[in-house]
Amino acid sequence: MPRIKAVFENSQGESLTGLLEMPSGTIKSYALFAHCFTCSKDNPAAARIAFALADRGIAVLRFDFTGLGTSKGDFSDTNFSSNVQDLLAAAQYLEQHYATPELLIGHSLGGAAILAAAQDLSSVKAVITIGAPATASHVKHLFANSYRKLQDQQSVQVKLGGRSLNIRRQFIDDLEKYNSVAHIGALRKALLIFHAPLDDTVSIDEAARIFTAAKHPKSFVSLDQADHMLSNPQDSQYVAEVLSAWVSRYLKTNPASVGQEEAARPPIEQGMVIVRECDKKFTREILTQHHRLISDEPIALGGSDLGLNPYELLLAALGSCTSMTLRMYANHKQIDVQDIQVELQHSRIHAEDCADCEKQKTQIELLTRNIRLTGNLSDQQRARLLEIANKCPVHKTLQNKIQINTNLAD
């Protein structure tokens, strides 16, 4: 599955980095993943869930909050409010470059963050929490000993999750703003809650608070025997499987969803090709009556490199037609051709003398085709096969004068 490095700015102009796991096939939806407190985008559970969802057609962006992982900024200057703003910046990045996220997924404090951010993201249709507290103020107990020191000091060093971090008084004071579950009751989005009964970091009572505060549709899934970090790969795999099945109910009716489901496939006549957008960059879905493929541009040109670029598709048409024509002729004439390989390249050259050009020294398109034939062939047979290659239907089409009629559909 393709992975794309994402770089975008937070509200303070600092550079945040993330990873976008893209499906190899149809993109059903885009999701935004918020990792646990002080974790990074490389957290094993977050990575495994993102991989599994991408395998099921859901593109997932996970990123490092300000001051964590490879993102810029000072962690001591951050707080829960800035985390929420980072989430909104990540959502804006998806909207500008791909499509608006329809799913928000949050683990631990990241779950509390997505519950807070969801009200500002109208495109979101479903919210999923994993081992999350109902409110951000739940984590205040982690700083109980440090809080007294902050009465006299600007900052203190705390050890969380095996890491030493500096926090300031403003961090703890900011948590007081998030001591209510009222925003959960006003969510107006489908909600799925994952929580482990044995979670000794965030009590399952927090899941009960979220579930009670939320309006329907809401669902709860117990993660039996799992720990808070989902350290067992089977637990994160289970979360991804249940999540993708559950969320399909809330995505399939979305007419603007990128990478439409097969059920939304338009009627296509024999010989017709339909090309439609998969994102707001260059990824395109190509549909025929019975087949589907993806075209794109390389990452260096601003694309996601999920498929052949347009000129590669052109060369592929010529190459495949050449190979088919040669095989058909060889079989018909019973010529011992064991294998056919066609290599093609496209370039532009200056034409020093071109009778059909309006002016001299203009550029013309050059398609170079090299054919490798394997088999017990005489020189005469090879020469004849070369003649046949130049008679393939696509070759003739490209050499004919082509008229293209373009209309705007109603």
UniProtKB/TrEMBL annotation:
Residues annotated as domain Serine aminopeptidase S33: 47-152
Instruction: List, alphabetically, the InterPro entries matched.
Output: AB_hydrolase_fold, Hydrolase_4, KH_dom-like_a/b, OsmC/Ohr_fam, OsmC/Ohrsf
**Protein name as catalogued:** Putative redox protein
Organism annotation:
Nitrosomonas ureae
